[in-house]
Structure formats: structure tokens, C-alpha cells
Amino acid sequence: MSGLVVARAGSRPAAVPWVPAVLLVLTAIAYPLTEGGAVRDAVSWTIVLLGSTVSVVHAVVSRGARTGAGVLLATAATAVVFESVGLATGFPYGEYTYSDDLGPTLLGVPFLVPLAWLMMAWPSWLLAHRLTRGGRRAVRVGVAAAVFAAWDVVLDPQMVQAGYWTWAHPQPSLPGIDTVPLTNLAGWLLAGLVLMTLLDLLVARTALAPPRTGDGAPLLVLGWMTLGGAVAHAGWLGLPGSAAWGVLLAVPVLVALAVRNRRP
Q1: Does residue 140 sit within a domain?
Q2: I want to staple 107 with a disulfide (CB 3.0 to 4.6 A). Which of 21, 64, 84, 100 is the partner?
Q3: β-pairing, 165-167 with 109-110?
Q4: Contact status, residue 219 vs residue 123, Cβ threshold 8 Å
Q5: What is the pLDDT at residue 252?
């Protein structure tokens, strides 16, 4: 009986990241069902806050407090550096401006932006780790950076539509997406390579081994924000191009995961 009590107590931390993950899914469902303005802004803020919470809490629970703190600090610092340089120079994303709807800023970067990076970065690294388990660091970092950039392919048109930022020169762009330039994708790939290298080194030096929990909660966030976002774009938001790209980019990953999980 005492062993059963200990097992149940030990399983409680593993459930903690699932709470904000499930709340994020429910909130994301509400986004396309709301009208524009203050209500939709509040929904957007809530999604990002919940997503960043999932990342930090999961990193702490699964890999330890040092890893969780490192994920938070490394991601936030990298985001502020890249975004502030991007705003000042146009490199590496292209020339863009933020609206006042995103609230307070640091070096011109709205506080919401590093939190959005945090929501995206940790799940991207986890998925790459799962896809490339046993592989070289360079491969894992490259896959993680690609996932990181692909996620933005789906999300960026939605944020432009909401008026959160505007591109000075949105062309040339991906087919079907005429509001976001290709330079943005190149910038996300570069930023992703830098950030994922930092996260990979961080995990190697600080993480508990083996992880104390599975990676289901952050991977749910990644999957829902990509595929669920594609459904919302196609059905409610009038963004068929980014919806198609979301499906196109997600299918190879799902196939790779299925193949990977079938291997002995």
C-alpha cells in the first residue's frame, strides 16, 4: 500500500505541464470564434502565456530546475537580441514594425514576443530530439531550427492579419502567403540555429538523465498550434495559404515520427 501511495505522489509532477497545455488548446479553439479587438487580443495573450508556461514548467519537471531556468533565460535573451537588431536594422528578418497592441516593450521588443519564442522553442527542440535520437548534435540542431521556422510559417500570417506587426516589403513570399516575406523565413532559420544550439548545449550540461516525465504536453502545444492553426486558418480566418503550408510541413514530421516509433 505504501508503495502505491509513493507511486501516485511521484506521478503528480508529471501531470503539471498538462494543465496549461489543455487550457491552451481550449483557448486556441476560442481564438477564431471571437471577433477582432480587445477580446481577441486577450485570447492571444492568454495563448502565449499558457504556451510559455508549458515550456518552462515541463523543462523543470522533466529535466530539472537548472534546465528550466536556462531554457527561460537563453530563449528570452536570444529573442530580445534578434528582435531588437531586426527592428533597428532589418536583419535578418526584413523590415517590420510592431503595433502598440502588444503592450510594453524592451529595446522596442514587446514583452509578449520573447514569451512567444519560449512557447515555440522548447517544443521544437523536444521534437527534434525525438526525431534524431542517437544522432549528431548538428543534425538535431538543424532539425530543431527547421521545426522552429516552420511553426512561424503558420503563425506569422495570423499575427499580421491581427495587426500585431506589419512588413514594409512582404514580397517575395511563399506561394499562398502574400503578407510575410521570404526574408522572415530565412531569419527564423538563422535565429533557430543559434537558439537551438544554445538549448542543446544547455540540456547536455544541466538536464537530469533520464528525463523524469514524457514530452507529451509541449508536443501537444506544438501539434495543436500547427495543425489546429491550419484548420482555423482554412475554416474561419480566411488564410488558406498558411493553412495549406501548415499541413504540408506537418505531414512529413508525422510520417517521420511514425517511422521512428515503429523501429525497435
Answers
A1: yes
A2: 84
A3: unpaired
A4: yes
A5: 87
* 7 domain-assigned: no
**Model pTM?**
0.93
Q: Which residue has the cell 495573450?
A: 45
Domain range for 97 is 19-262
In angstroms, the CA 65 to CA 208 distance is: 9
Identity of the residue numbered 213: T
Total domain count, the chain: 1
Q: Is 98 left (phi over 0), alpha (psi -120 to 50) or beta?
A: beta
Residue of 105, 111, 92 whose CA lies nearest to 48: 111
The answer to whether 61 and 17 have CB atoms below 8 angstroms apart is yes
SS3 of 3-42: the string is HHHHHHHHHHHHHCCHHHHHHHHHHHHHHHHCCCCHHHHH
Establish if 14 belongs to a structural domain.
no
Tens digit of each residue's pLDDT (9 = 90 or more) over 217-252:
999 999 999 999 999 999 999 999 999 999 999 988
Say if residue 4's pLDDT is above 60: no
Q: Is residue 12 part of a domain?
A: no
* Res 11 pLDDT > 80: no
